[in-house]
User: Fold this.
Amino acid sequence: MILPKAARLTPEQLIEVTQIVESSGCRVQPIVGTVRTIYAIVGDERDELMINRIEGLPFIERVDQIQSPHKLMDRRSDLATHRITLGGVTLGEELLIVAGHCTIDPKNPQLFYESAQAVKEAGAHVLRGGVWKPRTNPYSFQGDAKSLDILLEAHRRTGLPVDAEVMDETQLKLAIEAGVHMLQIGARNALNYSLLRNIGRAVADRDTVVLLKRSLHMGPINEFISAAEYIVAFGNPNVILCPRGTAPTLDGYRNHPDESITPLLKEKTWAPVVVDPSHSVGKAAYVPACALAAVAYGADGLCIEAHVQPSKGIGDDPKQALTPDQLAETISQAKQIWALRHPSKVASA
Ligand code: PEP
Ligand code: MN
Assistant:
């Protein structure tokens, strides 16, 4: 990792650095952070001559060689100072709430507009709405591109930034063109490296945020962090980790709740953690407790399915969506737990 003395390299300086790096068979990848740009060396960065030549340049502060399977995501990386801001919330400074339908019903846009307004009033900062849906049964409703227009109309009406899952390149292109603010990578695709690569490339020059869910079958924590790094390595560090329950299921719950991994993630990576309690426990009655536990474990935010009339919803909403009142109550309690964990941030607010 190359750290310049100034906030970023000038184009001429970048050319000079690139020539050195490429002559050692590596490549330079700028990573644009909020405050400064740093430059990853992609390839074998242990070449001593290359490092000496770069460190000898008068405009270079140092070359960091963090020994970690995911150097960019490591807490010791210079990206650790990067902050992600969405919906007026800077992660780490305030609890981020993402809420909305599991799935937008293209035949009933009004219901989504009502939920959008209701989750805003309940305190959500970002509106979620599934446009395309991964399903357990391929013959179930898989979503409809028409719902993208409904999502954007809800954004116009409420002013909330919007979040939708994309599962392939066509959906990715449409979502990027539409200006979707947060792209969700679902649990089924968290290990789909070609999708991760395409998303990384697509958001490289944008401020789009990516919410990476934890795969049902991810084992060691490093697998999750490395998947996030694969996206960040293309140049946009706005990646959030989202535990959402894993396999095998805990009898009675939809998945095995995994909000307790947050302290482990935080020990290794600077990436913010936004927990999804809805898919973790899979039943509205259990969601508030899981949400509060997630915040107690150190989550920076929550992603919760919510609906004005869950029984009229499609997708997961009839089973696991909270009503706006339940959402408001959960947010209020979650904020109290967050305040206990971050007394200095609350005092200075
Ligand atoms: C969802 O958010 O509606 C969803 C399908 O989530 P996951 O990928 O976690 O199953
Ligand atoms: Mn869902």
